Amino acid sequence: MIQCEQFYNLLLSNNIDFFTGVPDSLLKDFCSFIYDNVEGKKNIIAANEGNAVALAAGYYLATGKYGLVYMQNSGQGNAINPLVSLADIEVYGIPMILLIGWRGEPGKKDEPQHVKQGKITLKLLEVLEIPYSILPEDMEETSEEIKKAVKIIKLNKCPYAFVVRKGTFSQYQSSRNEELSYTLYREEALKLIVDNLDPDDIIVSTTGKISRELFEYRELKRQGHEKEFLTIGSMGHASQIALSIATEKSNRNVYCFDGDGALIMHMGALATVGAISPRNFKHIVFNNGAHDSVGGLQTVAFKINIPEIAKACGYRNVFSAETKKGIIKSLEKLKSIDGPSLLELKINKGARKNLGRPTIAPKQNKIDFMNFLKE
Fold this sequence. Notes:
This protein is α/β, with parallel strands linked by helices. It contains 14 helices and 14 strands. A six-stranded parallel sheet has the order 2-1-3-4-6-5, sandwiched between helices. Strands 8-7-9-10-14-13 form a six-stranded parallel sheet, with helices on both faces. Strands 11-12 form a two-stranded antiparallel sheet. α3 packs parallel to α4 (76-87) and α7 crosses α8 (209-220).
């Protein structure tokens, strides 16, 4: 395993002192280390991976120094456009290091949404003509690989990628204590919402722990899962799935269960919802100010006003609540008025350690959900 501090110092010694990206579970220890030890303007948690590539490009243009962009391999899709049309050697030729967590690595058990991405992670880099290597777990080998990568990006003015296997970085315990003082955790708030929905209501839940907690609550209540589409991948796109369903099922309320990190990743989706303006669209944002599924690093959600942003994008009604009483009161309003409407729930970050994952296959969830929509 690689010690996070040693890896960080190795990067500094090779003129790499700017970090940006979207946190990943395989990189969470290194991301937590730089979060603790690098000043804010030199470590920017980006809205999405494409933004992170642009941030690294801007840093290079301003300083002539190289940035490091960290991401899960699922973020390659978001990053492709600026990698090809901005950083590529045939366009501007902007050097940077990519640090990519290899979820779904072939031969290793992982969740369904990571399997295909794992198969094509290296192939995508080859198609993009981005030189890469798999990050060694030995520090001496890593040092040589970093030197090689820096030599390549300096000579060719291009990105270079390191693909990171599970368990490559040693554990790092963050020294920051960022406990929130809200009265509810996400799972408690989610149960409250589910218990107060009508039988024919439709749910589209975002990727991560929201869908996992929703699935387990249905299991606990011995209910089926046909009423919700569990979006186990496609971070940031749940609201658009829900929007399209809402326009086709105008006689039924459609609820999007969203996370703050997912909403921020593709915030432009709010403008589309506002423009289409379906009266049955109900957007519930579980805001704990963190990328909770991949290590708990902060988002900017508590530094912005999500309800007011939605209102400016054309949502008819917006609410914010943080107590059980406030949630129930806001939900009753949400159910009875025309949308699109948004309810922000301010909650504590964190989840129980024994939280499981959906045990039904994604295709079965799709079939059951589509049958429910036909009713």
